[in-house]
Design brief:
The structure holds two protein chains of two kinds. Chain A is of the alpha+beta class. Chain A has helices at residues 17-26, 86-89, 126-139, 146-154, 171-174, 207-213, 223-237, 249-254, 260-268, 274-278, 324-343, 353-356, 364-373; strands spanning 10-13, 30-37, 40-45, 56-61, 64-69, 93-101, 107-110, 119-124, 156-161, 187-194, 197-204, 219-220, 285-291, 297-304, 314-315, 318-319. The chains are: A alpha+beta, B alpha/beta. The structure holds flavin-adenine dinucleotide, iron/sulfur cluster (2 copies) and FE2/S2 (inorganic) cluster.
Amino acid sequence: METAGGSSASVLSREAFPRLLEAIRAAGYRIVGPTIRDGAIVYGEIARVEDLPIGWTDRQEAGTYRLERRDDAALFGYNVGPHSWKKYLFPARERLFSATGTADGGFTVQAEPRDEAPLAFLGMRGCELAAVAIQDRVFDGRVPDPGYHARRQACLRIAVECGQAGATCFCTSMGTGPAVRGGSADLILTELLSPERHEFLIRAGSERGAAILAGVPTRPATDEDARAAAARVESAAGAMGRRLDPAGLRDLLLGNPEHPRWQLVAERCLACTNCTLACPTCFCSSSEEVPDLSGAKVERWRRWDSCFNSAFSELHHAPVRKSTSSRYRQWMTHKLASWHDQFDSSGCVGCGRCITWCPVGIDITEEVAAIRATPGASGPARRSP
Amino acid sequence: MSSERATSGGLPVGPAGPYAPVPYRVRSRTEETADIATLVLAPVDGAVTPSSAPGQFNMLYAFGIGEAAISISGAPDGALVHTVQALGATSRALFAAPPGSCVGVRGPYGNGWPLERAVGRDVVLAAGGLGLPPLRPLLYRLLAERERFGRIEVVYGARTPKSLVFYEEIQRWRARSDLRFQVTVDAAGRDWYGDVGVVTTRLPDARFDPANTVAFVCGPEVMMRFTAKALLERGVPAEAIFLSMERNMKCAVGFCGHCQFGPEFVCRDGPVLPYARIAPYLGVREL
Ligand SMILES: Cc1cc2nc3c(=O)[nH]c(=O)nc-3n(C[C@H](O)[C@H](O)[C@H](O)COP(=O)(O)OP(=O)(O)OC[C@H]3O[C@@H](n4cnc5c(N)ncnc54)[C@H](O)[C@@H]3O)c2cc1C
Ligand code: SF4
Ligand code: SF4
Ligand code: FES
């Protein structure tokens, strides 16, 4: 069977799945992927196939997340959890440089060594690949961030097409999933699971992926296998828990900065920053100087920040965005509107994390619908990125 | 040893990466006011200071304390000059940096004033407080190529006579016949013989042909809003008014998100932004 990318699809048996992990490791990668920790599926070290959440699924709703047993032994039978791959490409804390004081009152600056082992991201979903592509535009564009660039170039992306959708998912609205197009990942898996079979349709999306796949025992896929995989993805697409109409969204939000809804949502919003930390595309950071005790050596660290923090917009000892409503407006308007001006794409991939992980269950799709129901003006002219 | 600095995406990058400051030594320090000082800087390693456009800024670094965005206030092709007001920990350390001490520099960043737009036209520079330092490199350039421009009108407002910067140089500018330089203060004692009132009160006196004028404005946001309004009322087209915006800045290269003003990254798309483009956002509270 031929795929869009031109590479042929194969079928990997569940029994041979560990051989795939071995081949990835043999190619020099450290594998990270979904694993259970503290009652949630997060991303961490995958040493063996048993580290995956085998036979578990997640039940999500606005403000709630719960793990449940499945009645099968699926390896990827769940959707996305609180972590995203940005924690590897754009770590929550990163040293930018060190500086050492010199005897003559000056200082010298030491660059950051780049020697991390390349990572293989196992189990990236369609929305997550789209989120990485969005952060590529932020960190790997005109001026590359050296750390992001190095990690991004080195990483191997092993995608999994979703066979089910969560109640807070809306990737179909944002055009990011659940299907994974060839070329957007190095390897693409679709889990084929029924009482009779447990296999994976596997496609290579790059040379790197093809080289790894060549060392794994597979059989050529039949049309029947391809149809079964397509059916899985289609059923996920039909089961989206949320939807968001993106038509004209940029103008709608930029044209409604004084909409009463911003005030209403602020009455519930705790400005806790959960949504921005869980969001796979949010990229804001702060940096701080960390001196050692003697003061002779200092390090400059960057850490994730959020537009919900009051110090974030501080100017002349007072925040520009004093009210929670102005911060929520910044968040949602940036994601869905000004992101288009800045990066020529939406800043939202429809993963639903901000809905699930909001302690009071604020729902971005509901907020958009409310503003759409009673819009005011249309937005200012769009500028080019 | 003298060498050019590397660049990345058109931005200069120090030997230790885009975030790492390059050590500079303070050559001289002039106290402009009780809390504002002008520093002349030269690279410790003898490398060439990257050339800059009027209106651009650098991230200045006080070792062990932190960084702040500071506009370039000297001539674009001369030594590196910055004028710093002591406000928080970083700017206090920079303000106090004695000759011979070291500060870090990375940059220049931002877009600068669109000087070409002023060719053949009258030019209005309106500065409020520390808005004058980022306009000074532009004024140097205008005066260096004087015949390319029409009338030059500068209006500079400060809180009190004691908070005026570049005092002696202003006397020399005021003595020139090819430029008009008005100074006004918000409040003054009896020893002040100049004008009293905010910047906008001096605009009706400024002589320029509104339809053929370009205005460059830098100062506190309210001052810029009122100045733009007054210029529009005199008939200057919105497309001919440029403001230098200020927002919280951490990275200066478009990564940290702090400087966003609507869709603009002030560090990368600004700090100089065309009034016509940002007018819809200027009126929105807490944007
Ligand atoms: C384009 C541009 C050009 C500028 N040009 C000049 C210039 O030429 N001269 C000049 O003097 N200034 C200039 N500034 C202002 C300058 O960058 C600084 O804002 C100013 O010097 C104060 O910095 P600071 O670190 O000393 O003070 P602070 O106000 O103490 O700190 C600055 C920032 O630190 C953070 N901060 C402060 N307190 C806290 C807290 N409690 N928790 C967390 N974070 C906190 C805030 O984000 C705050 O905005 C310019 C600014 C911009 C954007
Ligand atoms: S805004 Fe919400 S749904 Fe959209 S990408 Fe971020 S976390 Fe996912
Ligand atoms: S939504 Fe807020 S935290 Fe996220 S990228 Fe935009 S400004 Fe930054
Ligand atoms: S200062 Fe960091 S994005 Fe502009």
